[in-house]
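Thread: Newbie trying to understand structure tokens

Hi all, I'm a second-year student working on a class project, and my supervisor (Dr. K.) asked me to get a predicted structure for one chain before our next meeting. I've only ever worked with sequences, so writing a 3D structure as a token string is new to me. If someone could post the tokens and maybe explain what I'm looking at, I'd be very grateful. Here's the chain:
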Amino acid sequence: MKQWYRNPRLRAILKVDADESTTEELTEPAMRTHVASLLILVLLMVASSGANTSLIVGNTGIFGWPPVSWNPNVSCPVVLGDLRTILGSAYPNQSLMGSPYQVNATDGGIPNKRMLRPPCSIVNINGQTEPVLVQVSGVYLSSYQTEDCSTKFDPINNGTSYPDINGDGRPNTFCDSTGNLFLVGDTNSFNPRIHIEFDHDWMAAGWAGASTTYDSNETIPRCPPVPPPMTNFCNGTPIAVQGFVFWDNQDPSPHWELHPLTAWKTSS
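---
Reply by user tm_fold:
Sure, no problem. This is what the structure looks like when written as tokens:
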């Protein structure tokens, strides 16, 4: 009997008896046909599930199948993504055009980065429906900072004041925690990358930030700041993140973001 057929995992998948006489009855060509049939069946199952298979390619550190939201406040389906898919044909550079998340000539991803209830999918410029809650693995966080503080919710979230959590009679202040994700092992001038933001409205709502275990902006592994010209590679802790895809066209350097970032876990 051929050694390739002695693999215990393969034997278990094919439900082959441990008895040697049983396995001898199956010829190598027959076994190859059996394996090929199983592979075709798996591909058909993935295709029929409605998953965007282009987002699955290249993703590492999968945390179970099918992927689910790690944030209990988010009920949207999760798709496995990578930087190449999000950036599209402009990869490794930042451009609205060429990304599957481009909605029109100026916008991409969800309509508003502050939304507490963003849509689960968008219709892109080509008329295709794209899920926008993406899970990306095998990345590390750098350029981490605090910015854009507020004491009230964005108008998209009714514009009311933040809660008075510390009891001083005034609404608490919450700020975005922001940074950039880079591919683990990539030393190509810190490119490609994607920007992430723990959103201050999500923190005020208690859906993100230090009050959570699944989306803490304080405990997320990150690299120390790297001064210009950013030529020193930081061997950061690999993480996997989930967030809504958004094109920030208001920044002086427009770019793709996962904003809001909804959850993260350490990866491998």
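A couple of things are worth pointing out once you decode it. The first strand starts at residue 79 and ends at 81. Helices lie at 8-13, 20-24, 28-48, 53-56, 83-87, 200-204. Feel free to ask follow-ups in this thread.
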